[in-house]
């Protein structure tokens, strides 16, 4: 045949398909199975065929080997879509290209007069290169043309939103675009494939993502060829991605293999392991990772490593009751220590506050590090000192924690902070507890040295203004006296308790004196309140002669008890 046609024998052998195995052929410098290579299908470029018929007659008609590959739709010379000849009556007639060209000559000439011009395809260019020069030295090298075509096509269709493996509804234009999109990903290696999977996973519409749904037709096709040795590297890359990003049970096989170790679990399983609620686990995870709460609320799975980290973080926290038991004090006193800055507190979407166990342990270790109290040195227990000096335990502990009681505190018998012993004359001034913001009614009463009912009366008549805020510990709205109204009150008024404290006299005796001097108390529609206008008071009585006046800006600077 080479001598008769006057062509090179080596070239003729190279471009003649050679059967390698059952259904597998050597196609130029690559291989293919009958899935992508059809010997019995005649596909011609209409322009090439028309030019040959008009110039050389039927003997000049030819069919390039690459045109027998079903994923090639375009003539590389003219850009025309290949024209597929109708099936012959007998199989042996299929190989006679000249006789078929003569039989369907009018079809070819008509197609050549108005050819369908196709754009150049990245995937088809690669297929031609592979047929002419062989595969590149990359991870696609082991794939034959059939597997390469199906991998690119299925991946492209999955990225385009196709959800089923039915290819009968896919036309050649859609198929060409899908092959180009899939090849653009696959040619860049496993990392690009993983990035494409990330996009597919990110657009899932189900409450819980499933890898078989997210990876769509591509994963469905891989299931059908999971025993193919040439696809080992691609199967491993897909399997590794699934194990890393989706919850898989230990006995569940993915593309023929079970996971070596569980990496992802659902939040339902995490809840069972952690013995914590799903919503609370998500809030903990959001706090640790810094992601928004609404984003954390939509999560359906978590990695085992992340769950271990969350549980380790949770183990390092304790609630107020646990902290109080460790410290030997009341939960309300723990709250005061938080407000005084001794402890930091965390909240996770509710009113409950949690402390770091490490901070509590550090404070207890500081107690243990104190020198032991000598029985004859006169040290008194913390509770006794607090009661006798009328100073809160939290204020004493905060003063010691800040270094104010150096040399005046020692360690004795007791649990937690009750092991603190102080000298009776320890310097711990009874100063107002620093507070920022608006006080509640009880705090305002203590600050003004009047009764709670008197504060309510002043509030009801409009002298003090009440604001309502959410209580951080109960999530209920609670009434507070505004700091502005307190400052306005102190500019014009003074209470009997404040005058008595400044002059070091009993309030009842001072009240009698004021009544004798004809200085009236404030009369309101709700009754009389022992509050006086400052301009009606003598200067010595207003400012006090025995004790220095308390700083009038104490509240403004955070001096509310």
Structure explained in plain terms:
The chain is mainly alpha-helical. Helix content is 45%, strand content 11%. The chain contains 28 helices and 19 strands. The protein has a three-stranded antiparallel β-sheet. The chain has a three-stranded antiparallel β-sheet with strand order 8-10-9. Strands 11-13-12 form a three-stranded antiparallel β-sheet. The radius of gyration is 44 Å and the shape is elongated. It starts with a helix and ends in an 18-residue tail after the last helix.
Shape assignment = elongated
| C-alpha termini separation | 111 Å
- Which ranges are low-confidence, i.e. pLDDT below 50, for 5 or more consecutive residues? 546-561
The total strand number stands at: 19
* Neighbour order of strands in the largest sheet: 1-2-3
Mean pLDDT: 86
**CA-based gyration radius:** 44 Å
Please outline the helices and strands.
Layout: H1 2-5, H2 9-14, E1 18-21, E2 24-27, E3 30-33, E4 43-44, H3 46-55, E5 83-84, H4 91-94, H5 97-103, H6 105-113, H7 122-133, H8 145-159, H9 172-186, H10 190-202, H11 211-214, H12 216-224, H13 232-245, E6 264-266, H14 267-274, H15 278-289, H16 293-297, E7 301-303, H17 304-315, E8 317-319, H18 320-327, H19 331-339, E9 345-346, E10 354-356, H20 357-368, E11 380-381, H21 382-389, H22 393-401, E12 409-411, E13 420-422, H23 441-448, H24 452-460, E14 466-470, E15 477-481, H25 483-492, E16 493-495, H26 496-503, H27 507-516, E17 522-524, E18 527-529, E19 531-533, H28 539-543
Helix pairs in contact: 3-6, 8-9, 8-12, 10-13, 15-17, 18-19, 19-22, 23-24
